[in-house]
Amino acid sequence: MTDARQLLRELLKSPAVWAAFVALLNRVLVAAFPQLDPKVVDAVNDFIVVVGIIVLLMGSVWAFQGAGDIPGSFMSNDPTWMAIGAPTAAAGAVLAVLGLRAKKPSAPQTPP
């Protein structure tokens, strides 16, 4: 039970988890409120793309530090950071793609 709690604590510290939560929240908002202004939805999608790119870059730095390619840190040459950075970078890439591919809401149609 303690291991599960520790794992949950570590997951909640991950920026990739929070970024995925923001992407999921965007999907829920669009589905629940189809009358949202398309500009708001576009702004949220743009925000998801920016967060995804930041998480991608952060994970890449962690992975390269863990591999020893970026020296000068306590993370250098530590395989743990490679194991943390690679999935974080992948999650950031997925978020950026999801934000780019998000379906744009259609404009309300007026009857003729």
Q: Keywords for this structure?
A:
74% helix; mainly alpha; 0% strand; 112 residues
Q: Helix fraction? A: over 70%
Largest sheet: none
Distance between the termini: 62 Å
The DSSP helix count reads: 4
Shape: elongated
What order do the SSEs take from the amino end to the carboxyl end, as H and E?
HHHH
Whole-number radius of gyration? 18 Å
Overall mean confidence score, pLDDT: 79
Low-confidence stretches: none
Structural class: mainly alpha
Approximate strand percentage: under 5%
Give a count of the beta strands, DSSP E runs of length 2 or more: 0
Would you spell out the secondary-structure blueprint of this structure?
Layout: H1 2-13, H2 15-32, H3 38-67, H4 79-101
Structural commentary:
The chain is mainly α. It has a domain at 38-103. The protein is built from 4 helices and no strands. α2 runs antiparallel to α3 (38-67), α2 (15-32) packs parallel to α4 and α3 packs antiparallel against α4. 22% of the residues are buried. The model has no long low-confidence stretch (mean pLDDT 79).
